[in-house]
Every structure is written in C-alpha cells, then in structure tokens.
Specification:
single chain, elongated, 215 residues, 8 helices, 25% strand, alpha/beta, three-stranded parallel beta sheet, six-stranded mixed beta sheet
Length: 215
C-alpha cells in the first residue's frame, strides 16, 4: 500500500504463521526484537484469548523499498486481535437432538485448537475432561490406520486443518462404513462437501445432494 511514508506491506493471519515472518514487535514502550521472552509473552496472550473461545488474528507490517520484491518476512508484529464469533443460539439444542437421533457430530475447523475446544464446550458438543484434540500438523503425521483408530474416540475435535484434510477425514469415516453428512459455508469446505454422502444445501460451494451409497 502506498502511504505518505512510502510503500508499506500489511499482513494479517494466524499468529503462528505471521509470527514466523516477524523479527520485531511493537509494544507500548516501542519496537523491540522478538526474543524468547517476547515470544513467550505473545503466545501467552494468544492462549488467554483462545481459551475464552476467541478467534485470534495477528497483524504485522514492514516498509517496502521501491523496486524491491514484496515479501512477508522481516516484518514488525503490530499486535494480536481476538474476535468473538458466538455460536447461534439454536446450536446447542440441535446437537442434543442429533445425539438423541443417534447422529455423531465431529467438529472439523481451521480455528486454533484452544478456540475449537472452548466453543465445543460452550455448545455442549464436548462434555468430558480430555476429548481427543487433533491438529492439522498431527493429522499430517498420521498413517491411514492411525486416523481410523483415532476416529473411534468418543469425543474428537480436529483443529487448524486444511481443506484437503477435511476431505481426508470424510473419506476415513466412509471407509469405516459411516454415512457422512458435512455442513460448511467456506471455500475450504468444498472438497469435504463434495466427498460426503450428504452436504448442506445452504453451503457456498456447490453442494453434493443426498445420494444412495452403491452396494
């Protein structure tokens, strides 16, 4: 972006991704290097917000010299912002009705694991003290057999997962003989929606309508 001070690159995204591109951080007292103490302080602030169910974004910027390529590295971390995106009031009742009907619900989200767990507790999707909580990085290291076994957990949440990983989970459930329904309104939900037996008709990507599984 062109500003009175020259060209500036602005960046926002997941804290762990943005933080990796930053060398400096802007505190109230001024700009300081991101050393071990600063990183610990930032990650602690992130944990406080995610444990409260907030979605956290990191913001950063850096000056760009004319003629130089625009790269997201050596940036100054401006700060962290926690956004509240509360569940709809009817969600808890819907989850209860699904459970009564024998329908198992699994949360698969791109949110931070702490945010996902906090929201899952708010809507009574998770009731035990130690549900299975699997991140995208952990899922990436799993073999197909390990994923099949993990899906046997009574309560399981997948967090910080990518689009192709959502699809992978749907495929794994179908291999276990499950009839899988997927709901989601984001572009990154499209592969999972297309792979599912039933997809939500209100999703933004083109839905896959209910079909009978071939025998």
């Amino acid at each position: 972006m062109q500003t009175p001070q020259g060209r500036v690159l602005y960046c926002k995204g997941a804290p762990e991704t943005v933080l990796a591109a930053c060398d400096l951080v802007q505190f109230d007292a001024g700009i300081a290097p991101i050393d071990a103490a600063a990183k610990t302080r930032l990650l602690a602030a992130q944990d406080v917000m995610t444990d409260a169910g907030l979605r956290v974004l990191a913001f950063a910027h850096c000056a760009v010299e004319d003629g130089m390529p625009v790269e997201e590295r050596g940036m100054i971390l401006t700060g962290l912002v926690g956004l509240e995106d509360p569940p709809r009031p009817e969600v808890t009742d819907a989850i209860s009705r699904c459970a009564t009907a024998g329908i198992r619900i699994i949360m698969i989200t791109g949110d931070h694991p702490h945010t996902a767990l906090a929201i899952a507790r708010q809507i009574a999707l998770v009731k035990t003290e130690q549900p299975a909580l699997i991140s995208g990085d952990q899922l990436r290291a799993m073999s197909p057999t390990q994923l099949q076994l993990a899906l046997d957990a009574k309560e399981i949440i997948f967090a910080r997962v990518a689009a192709e990983q959502k699809m992978l989970i749907v495929q794994a459930l179908k291999k276990k003989g499950e009839i899988v329904a997927v709901t989601g309104d984001g572009v990154n939900d499209a592969p999972a929606l297309k792979t599912a037996d039933i997809a939500s008709p209100w999703a933004s990507p083109a839905p896959t309508w209910p079909r009978k599984r071939p025998t």
